[in-house]
Amino acid sequence: MRKLRYGMNVTLDGYIAAPGDDIGWGGPPSDELFQWWLDQDRASSLALYGRKLWDTMSSYWPTGDQQPDATPAEIEFARNWRDTPKVVFSSTIEKVDWNTRLVTGDAVAEITRLEAEDGGPMSIGGATLAGAAMRAGLVDEYMLATYPVLVGAGTPLFTALDSWVNLNMVETRTFPGGVVLTRYETRR
Predict the structure, then answer these.
(1) Where are the alpha helices (H) located in the chain, listed in sequence order?
(2) Is 20 in contact with 131 (CB distance < 8 Å)?
(3) Which of 4, 74, 141, 183 sits CB 3.0–4.6 Å from 171 for a disulfide?
(4) What 3-state DSSP class applies to 7?
(5) Is the pTM for the entire model greater than 0.90?
(6) Cα dihedral angle (87, 92, 97, 101), rounded to 10 degrees?
């Protein structure tokens, strides 16, 4: 059975995007934090995306390694991103590329099916998609890179839940710029 991991950059007041889907509040991550995210991506055998996060990722990473100022870690991230199998959950997108499959039906049913398969961990991204997985009790691990910034409103990291989710902290680490990583496993 696969593990499902939800990880995002987040503001101190709990938002992954400010109003207008603005994600510029964090600025570029430090080299150390970027490397940490790269290591997490390398450890995932399948990436699950909601439409908005897919739009963001697919607008840059297919050619991120070809940018003139790309760092070695960014080059590796772009290559890994293209190579990693991906599933996008959307009823509005008609086509996806870069080793990606589109699912237009019941996301929770498909995630449940994927989680029951043999294989390495899966990552899930996007607040709406992750919220559905959380409400269904499917998320096994949470990874939050909390930036020291308050934006006041926007897209929250966590959507409303039907019941409590008890967690065990398994890692905490501080990165340059005051970004604090916390990683939790779901207590079952």
Answers:
(1) 31-43, 51-58, 72-83, 107-116, 127-135
(2) no
(3) 183
(4) strand
(5) yes
(6) 30
Q: What are phi and psi of 162, to 5 degrees?
A: -85, -20
The residue to which tokens 């961990």 are assigned: 121
How far CA 122 is from CA of 17, 48, 51, 101, 162, in Å, comes to 23, 7, 17, 14, 23
- Residue at token pair 């902290």: 169
Integer Cα distance of 145 and 143 in angstroms: 7
- Rounded CA-CA distance 137/187 in Å is 11
pLDDT in tens, the chain (188 residues): 999 999 999 999 999 999 999 999 988 889 999 999 999 999 999 999 999 889 988 888 888 889 999 989 889 989 999 999 999 999 999 899 889 999 999 999 999 999 999 999 999 998 999 999 999 999 999 999 999 999 999 999 998 888 899 999 999 999 999 999 999 999 98
